[in-house]
Every structure is written in C-alpha cells, then in structure tokens.
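On clarity, I found the account of how folds are encoded harder to follow than it need be. An entry of this sort, consisting of the sequence and the corresponding backbone structure tokens, reads as follows:
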Amino acid sequence: MPHSSFQRANTLKAAFLACNVEPLEPAEMERYYVDLSLVRKTSAIDNVSTILDFQEAGNFTTILFTGHRGCGKSTELKKIQSLWENNYRVIYLEANEETDINDTRYTDLYLIVIKQVEFELRKLGLSFNQDLLKSFESWFKDITQENEQSVEKSVNVKAEATLSPTAPFLAKLMVKLLAQIKGSDKQKTTIRQTLEKDLSRLKSDTNLLLSDAYAKLRQKFPECKGLLIIFDNLDRVPPAVAEHLFFDYAAQMQELNCTIIYTVPISILCSPKNPLNQFDGNPHIVPMINIYEFERHKCDLNYNQTGLDAMASVIEKRVDVDEIFESRNQLLELAKASGGHVRQLMQMMRSACQTASTRKHAKIISEDIEYAVKQQQFSFERFIPEEHYAHLAQVCLTKNVSKDEIGQLMLFNTSVLEYNGDKRWNYPNPVVKRNEFFQQALQSAQKQ
C-alpha cells in the first residue's frame, strides 16, 4: 500500500468526501495524483508536453485531447497547466460554463477566447492596444446594435467574475453575448447569424487582438512562449455538435493565433467521416486503465493484477483501506466493476461508503460493494436502448466497436470503453455485461 505524509481518510464519511469525482485542482496534485500512464499504455501527457517544449515562441499549435468522460482527462489537463505555467500564460476554462454545450458553435469559442484573453491581460495590469480595441468595439456595436447603455443595463459587473469597473466595453459585451447564447434559443440564433455574416472580420480582428496580447505578454515576461488556452469539457458535446466543430469548421478551429488544447469526444474517432484527419497530428488519447488480459476471441477476459492494483491505488492514495474496508479484496471488486474508468470507480466507492454507513456497518463489506455496483448497473439499464445490446454483444466478441452512429453513441455514453497501447480495442463496460438483456444478446450472438 502506498505511503503518504498526508492523513488518509479513516472514517466512512471522510472516505466519501475524499473520493470526490471532481478533477484534481493543482493544489491537490501532490496529495492525490497517481501517475497511471504505464497502465494506460499511453503517454498523452508526455506527448503534449513534448509539443509544448518543441514549440518556439510565436508559433501556434492546435492540440486535440480525448478520452471517455470521467477517465481523468481534466485532472491530466490540470497537470499540463501546472507543468507549463512558467513557459506559457495558461488559460484553463470549462466550455460548459461559457456556452450551451449541447449546441456549441465555433463562433461561440471565438467569443470565449476574446473574453478570457482580455480578462487575463487585465489581471496582469495589461490591456489591448486602444486603437485595435476601439476598432473591434465599433464593429461589434455596428453588427449587434449594442451600445454602452444597452450592455450596462443587462450585465451585472459585481456578479460576473471576469468584470470590474475598469473592464472595457468589449469585455462587458462578450459577457452579455455569451450569457444570451447560453440562455435563449432566439437570441443565440440571432447572435450567431449576425457573426456569420462577416466571419472573416471576426477571425481577423480576433487574431489582431491575440497577436497584440502575445506582444504584451512577451514584453512583460520575456520567457513566456505565448498563450496556451485549454478548452476542457468540449468532449461533452453530442456527436452532431462534434461533427460541426471538428469536421465542418475544422479549419476555423485551427486559425486562432494562440496555442489551443481542445478536448474532443472519443466517439468522434469512430466517425466514418474521419473528421480529425483535417487537424495536424493525431489526437492524444487518455484511454481506460487496462485491467484485463487481452484475448481477441474470448468474451470473458481474465484480469490483469497490475491494472487492478493501479485502480486500487487511486483509492488507496485517499483512503486508509484497512480502516474502511473489511478486506482489500472488496476494493479490488470495485476496481473490476469499474472497467478501468476512474470516475465510475469513484462513484461506486462513494455509494459503498453511503450504503455501509446507512446499514450501520463499521466498515465496507461485500454486500455494500454489490449494492454499489448494482446501482451503477441500473443507471446504465435506464438509458441503454434495447437495440444496442446486440451491438454490445458483438463488441464483447470482436473487441471492436462499429464505425456508425450506434458505435459512436456507445462510446459517448461509456457503455463501451476504449483501451489502447500496443493494440487498440474496445470492451463493454463491466456493469453493462451484468445486464440480463446483454446476456441474452450474447447467447444469441454465440449461437450464430
């Protein structure tokens, strides 16, 4: 069991709180971070770091970062943020906080970049060139029919974290437009149609501001290579929105004068359109932690002890296992039911803590684990369409997901998980395999 100078949780309540499913903040890295690159069989972090290292000041790159929702991408991105904050001015943002994640357009991302870069400069006591700023503001006033008075009426300077009394009109306008995009279908459509009438102007003016920001940053911080913007949670966009962003407008996503990391849904990797082919470089994948011994033609795989121990270590870093579990075997049962999916492990761990406490158990016992796993199973049963089970059975038999809409949906909703390293392969989520519909579909498939 790993040793740590930090006090690990030794009560059920403390264990519940310690196994929070939120991504690790930079301040928590030392305490809770576990390097899982060896068992993931991939080095997405190292690959991204190499790109950032090789890049010269003034050059810009678009980097794609993917993996299942809940696999630990956000924690890894926070790690990248902390590794490179001395070489880049890093802006980490969550796309779902800024726009409607179910209906995101690439023009929204341009507005978010303008808003966040202006705010970053202002925090540093810097500002955009006044002539550039006035030109951009005038154009925006012209096309949106907004002015200082109309914006002031609808923007609460005190409530919005990126604003202050000294914020320029442009900053307040970006806040207003993004709030409207997130909140109202009618206003969202109007704003986007307005911007799309003159996309070349939007792009050229945005890039003028970004180039100005780069020059100001280099002046103040000569060692700074430039802006690094991390767009987290874009992997939550539905498949159709992902195709709009990363296929229809792939060029525009890459034309901003700064280095950007976009998170993309893993499901888009299985689109027959091959949308990511339009981007330089392969996407950097954070796959599942491999807890299995791979055999192509065997449906019920044996477990890989190294992978199981790695999954267990994520909990062991936070929890005193001897105090919380009746035996470590129960933790390993949770690891098996997770399929190597970090968030799923955390969710079941928290559920087991609650169940044990509710049932007045001094420690987590096997029946608490079984209840937690069943709750996860039932959660999947509620949303998996019946017609998916035949496809899930085929994934179990072939270790490959179909390159169609159903295949993309199964990856998107994590009923199918992706593993890679020496080989790339897929496998049904273990809580889905417990389902009676799955078992019936598997029997039917094996008879054919």
Q: What stands out?
A: The chain has a mean pLDDT of 91.
